[in-house]
Design goal:
By secondary structure, the protein is of the alpha+beta class. The structure holds S-adenosylmethionine (SAM). It comes from Tripterygium wilfordii.
């Protein structure tokens, strides 16, 4: 997550650390409506904390030398540890302030370890090493009360911890591939850190890849990043996520603290939630190990490729590269025309709201060209406009229809794949296997149904667009000239 700077007009934007790192080289059930935010009656009633957490806040306040919160206490909900209003909270009230001096950053690593970890290791891995170090110190760690509260192995549900069988449930989603890449990335970080760790066998001898990955996932799901780097913010990191909340963790450089302002009133006993970011279920699942049943930020990543037997393949590839189309980038060093496009929910099939990404529509226009003349015409048009290829509808309506029919058939294919994967999962909670499998099946279902919703919205938009073109061109719906099947 990214800390929003504490500036007069707050910027409500955050990113999870692991998403950031990937880009750079990373129940108490509440209704999801921000208007009501009433607790939904469920089996997961809020429980007072039965473990040492009663002592946690006083310990942190002693360490910080200031009061951190007068309105929150630590509780347990189905989301794990959580922060609960210990009295009425008013909208706009500052509910916690955690000074920088009790935040944990790579600077807190013992200098002899820190100096051995090169820049290439990165802050996320350094913080993971720090957690492993403090765990080894046990009661002697100055952070021991905090380290004890972190999730244990087996308690995290990011897809990096899923078995091959469990991962198969989400094979149709891009999260499947992203999980594999993320595990490779963590392995790389482990090997880079290992060289340094081996110099301290008494501390790190028992550290294997699994333990490193667990520590890495802890950091990825609960550290905040800012221009200064990356830090764990004890107490603030007990706050759970609501995608509709307007509360985020703010950073005040001037006062040297992080704080949270309530975005609504809370009654005593209610769980206080913040927004980690405007994250789709794919991000929540990979980086945080949970999903939301209906996530308004859902999106789907689709991959479209140019058929290898397209006679104009080389020319199309060349043109796309010249015009810096994302899909023109060589993949794995090969001249492959394939890339992924992100589709968000298309709000209305009738033209209101956002349509499909322009880059995707441009890609399919290039894909459907069947002569060198057509491609030359696209290049000429791009040169005369803003340099971007195929951004305008084809002048010949039939070509525009074909380009969008091509997209429609791809989207239909993705819809069918998602539908059969969801069917294979069976109805919710019907699995005879208990524990993690049931939980992860539900996450897979949330992920795939969210992506399906987005795909269907794209499908409706495309059908509507094609329908308009066909009707405009062929009032009698005689589309036989185009070789198009009437819809
Ligand atoms: C920053 S920590 C929040 C405190 C955490 N519950 C704990 O036990 O320490 C983030 C983790 O909390 C859980 N979490 C947060 N919001 C959630 C939600 N809306 N639904 C399910 N789990 C959630 C996930 O396990 C996530 O990785």
């Amino acid at each position: 997550m990214l800390l929003a700077p504490r500036i007069p007009i707050p910027r409500w934007s955050q990113l999870p650390i692991s998403t950031l790192s990937r880009r750079l080289h990373a129940k108490l059930k509440f209704s999801s409506s921000s208007q009501t935010k009433l607790p939904v009656v469920c089996e997961n009633a809020l429980q007072p904390l039965e473990d040492d957490c009663n002592e946690f806040l006083p310990w942190l306040e002693r360490k910080a030398g200031v009061e951190i919160s007068s309105s929150l206490s630590i509780g347990k909900s189905a989301y794990g540890r959580s922060l609960i209003a210990s009295r009425s909270i008013q909208t706009g009230e500052c509910i916690l302030k955690v000074p920088f001096n009790v935040q944990i950053s790579p600077e807190n690593l013992p200098p002899e370890v820190r100096n051995l970890l090169g820049n290439e290791v990165g802050n996320l891995a350094k913080l993971a090493v720090l957690i492993l170090h403090e765990q080894k110190m046990g009661q002697d760690s100055e952070w021991s009360p905090y380290i004890c509260c972190l999730p244990q192995p087996g308690e995290l549900h990011s897809t990096i911890f899923w078995s091959e069988n469990e991962l198969n449930m989400i094979r149709q989603s891009s999260v499947y591939q992203e999980t594999i890449s993320q595990k490779c990335q963590i392995k790389k970080k482990f090997l880079e850190s290992k060289l340094a760790l081996e110099r301290f066998p008494d501390i790190f001898a028992s550290i294997n890849f699994e333990r490193f990955m667990h520590a890495y996932a802890i950091v990825g799901s609960r550290a905040w990043g800012s221009i200064k780097g990356l830090s764990l913010i004890p107490f603030a990191d007990f706050l759970n996520h609501d995608g509709l909340s307007e509360s985020v963790v703010l950073s005040d450089e001037h006062k040297q603290l992080s704080e949270v302002i309530a975005d609504r009133d809370y009654a005593p006993g209610e769980e206080v939630l913040i927004r980690y970011g405007k994250f789709p279920n794919s991000t929540l699942l990979l980086d945080f190990g949970f999903t939301l049943p209906h996530n308004i930020h859902d999106q789907v990543q689709i991959q479209i490729s140019l058929p290898p037997d397209d006679p104009l393949r080389e020319m199309k590839l060349d043109l796309m590269q010249k015009h810096c189309m994302p899909a023109g980038k060589p993949v794995n060093g090969f001249n492959s025309l394939e890339d992924s496009f992100t589709i968000k929910e298309v709000k209305s099939a009738l033209g209101k709201g956002k349509g499909l990404p322009q880059s995707l529509r441009a890609f399919s226009r290039v894909l459907c060209c069947s002569s060198t003349q057509e491609l030359h015409a696209l290049a000429k048009e791009a040169a005369q406009c803003d340099g971007r290829l195929a951004r305008r509808p084809f002048e010949t309506r039939g070509r525009e229809i074909l380009a969008h029919q091509l997209l429609l058939s791809q989207i239909t294919h993705f819809i069918e794949e998602h539908e059969s994967s969801i069917e294979l999962l069976g109805p919710a909670d019907s699995s005879s296997r208990g524990g993690n499998f049931v939980r992860r099946s539900q996450m897979a279902r949330d992920l795939l149904t969210g992506e399906l919703r987005v795909l269907k919205s794209a499908y409706r938009w495309l059908k509507n667009y094609i329908g308009i073109l066909i009707t405009a061109d062929c009032p009698n719906n005689d589309v036989s000239n185009y070789g198009i099947i009437p819809m």
